[in-house]
Specification:
By secondary structure, the protein is mainly β. The protein has no helices and three strands. It has one domain.
């Protein structure tokens, strides 16, 4: 099992009804800090191709 990352800071860069972009600052279990970890948040969707 992998250890969890710790979120040190989090802020939204863009929000809309279609999805959000968030920037987190995270600390890994070994102590390494990732200052710019970007997350795309969006609802589930379905694509239909004909």
């Amino acid at each position: 099992m992998m250890d969890k990352w710790k979120t040190l800071d989090s802020k939204y860069l863009h929000t809309s009804p279609f999805g959000n972009i968030r920037k987190d600052c995270c600390e890994l279990p070994n102590g390494t800090v990732i200052e710019d970890y970007y997350v795309n948040e969006y609802d589930d969707w379905v694509n239909v191709l004909f």
